[in-house]
Amino acid sequence: MSSSSSSEEFQTIFDTAIACVQMAEQTYNIVCNNAAASSQQRTRRYIYRNREESNQRLVQDYFAKNATYQWYYFRRSFRMLKGLFERIVEDVTRECNFFQQRYNVRGTLGFTPLQKCTAALHQLAYGIPPDALDESFRMSARIARDSLHFFCKNVIQFYGPKYLRKPTRNGILQLQTHHASVCSTWFLLHMVLDERSSRELKRAQERARKDVERTFRALKKRWFILKKPTTYLGEEKLQEIMYTCIILHNMIIEDEGRAICALDEEETIPETQPIEIGGEEYINKRAEIRCTETFHNLRNDLVEHIYGVQNINLNLDPPDDPEDEFSENDFM
Fold it and tell me: Which of 2, 73, 130, 177 could bond 145 through an S-S bridge, CB–CB 3.0 to 4.6 Å?
């Protein structure tokens, strides 16, 4: 009797264990099916953009032997001549694997270096967001964004040492000579200073300060991305974009024969030692700069120089200043 009872009890426990295992298997299958369905829903839909046709159209429009748009339209669209752009494409492609055409994980041939560099340059030139290039370049926002990022980094790394170099003594002298050659008589006339017309100095200084504003305005006119910087870019990327625009601007000027200072690779820049603020040398330099006697001597020398070069009548009456908004103290 006891043996039969034990056998029945064992069978009951065994059946219960089998039922639990089966329930666990069902639960596991349900969880796996839900996870697979959820993963399938999250999978990004692949869009066939026909990038090959886009590349053929780009080549035919600008880079073919009988291109649709000749050099004038190329320069207006790319902000530079075709030879310079092709040299940049060749250099960044050689330096960075991103611009080299490769097959992706789907076995599809990727974008060409021309497509990626053109997309990056159009973002700089027109200030358009990356997702706006999909229709014209058949390029996703991610690829367009990466194209701009790697283009800026490689331009800075490859061309920065030459086109972002510090000014040398010979370079400064060349700039001064060029400035003196293009400076108009009218401007020099208004730089003539005596005790009655010292307020003209402040006006001249304001004109000089505007040179910096004009320089930045020229950059914004050429590179619209500086005119309306996008909010999604961080400080580091904005700095890269700014440096890239300056480098490309200098390269374009040199390529078109409008550069003022030529690079002298043998000239060395002497090292300068910083002056401690508040120290004895700092105080002496500050006193020397603010010396009134030195200021008047430099002003008189400038008057004599202008008179000797331009033969200007220094006895001319200064222009009227009805508001009398400048005084001698403005220059002290």
Answer: 130
